[in-house]
Amino acid sequence: MESLLCGHSLCDAMLYIPEDKVIFMGDLLFVDCHPTFFEESNPQKWIHILKEVERMDIDIAIPGHGSVGTKINFLQVIDYIHNLTTIAQKNNEIETIPLPNDYKNWPSPQIYHQNVKTLKELLHC
């Protein structure tokens, strides 16, 4: 399980209950809200973790933030990380980047721009 650590932060943790097909994801999963990136976040490892967990026999995923989710929400976070990575690599003026329609209904839209800024720093763009 050590390979499934340190995607979102250094203290990532999960609890899987196979007989109930439930996983408690902590801050590795955000449902219908902006994931947060920190200087210790590792976007590529985070994606790897979510892809590994997605292969497990799971019906219910309890996120660190947002409502109860499913495997579909793993893909949403993966897409979010991919999208923000691309935006961070292509743009220098973060404040002028419009919030994509996919995320307009999510709470705390200011987190989006902070995430792009943090990703630029993590990726050294």
Query: What is the average of the pLDDT values?
Result: 92
Radius of gyration (CA) equals 14 Å
- Number of distinct helices: 3
How much helical structure, as a percent, in the residues?
A: 25-40%
Strand order of the largest sheet: 1-2-3
| CATH superfamily caption | Ribonuclease Z/Hydroxyacylglutathione hydrolase-like
Distance between the termini: 31 Å
What's the CATH first level? Alpha Beta
From the 3D coordinates, which CATH architecture would you assign?
4-Layer Sandwich
CATH topology: Metallo-beta-lactamase, Chain A
What is the makeup of the main sheet?
Answer: 3 strands, mixed
Q: Given the C-alpha coordinates, what overall shape results?
A: globular
Unreliable stretches (pLDDT < 50, length at least 5) are: none
Taken together, the total number of domains comes to 1
What class would the helix/strand composition place it in? alpha+beta
> What's the total number of strands?
3
Strand proportion: 5-15%
Secondary-structure element series: EEHEHH
Protein name: MBL fold metallo-hydrolase
Pfam families: Lactamase_B
InterPro entries: Metallo-B-lactamas, RibonucZ/Hydroxyglut_hydro
Domain Metallo-beta-lactamase: 7-65
